[in-house]
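Exam revision sheet. Question 4 asks you to relate a sequence to its structure. Input first:
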Amino acid sequence: MEVLFDIPKESPKGLSIVGHPQPLLGGSATHKVPQFLARALCEAGWVVARPNFRGVGQSEGVHGGGNGEVDDLLFLYDLLQAVTPGLRKVLVGFSFGAYVQACVARRLIDRGTPAWRVCLAGMPFGTIDSYRQYLTPSGISDALVVHGETDGRVPLANVMTWARDDVQPVVVIPGADHFFTGKLQVLRSLILRHMAA
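Answer key, structure tokens:
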């Protein structure tokens, strides 16, 4: 697995793993949204790990439909926890990366070792693009879930359906599309505020 690291100049506040969008649609660790978030987190004092999912960049393998990517990120989380046990760990994901991070967060909760913070932006749920199915796990009560009002890839209604049973709050950015075009600074401030709480 290829992992890009962003290292802050000062002593780190913690370590964040940032998940990127759908590899089958060109998503990678250098996509503009995860790269923007990584820069913001690093400037705020966090070490950032940006893994490339299977078959992307220098990462070996082929797309795992989500399940393989969850296993890979859980492995990375455990490895980073072993080498930096004193640092708080945060899971951040955008689009497909948010789906993967939600699954990782749920598995960490189930084994009694939850991440310190979870931030999920543009997260898919249900049927997307008429054929992709995302059975995103629920029960991540303290996660920051952010969605664009006009998201054309993942309709807001899908995310509200996901959130309804657990009464999971969802922050909706008015006028934002799936990529938060022109609204990335708002997304940045929401994530940094959540991590500072």
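Marking note for examiners. The longest strand covers residues 88-94.
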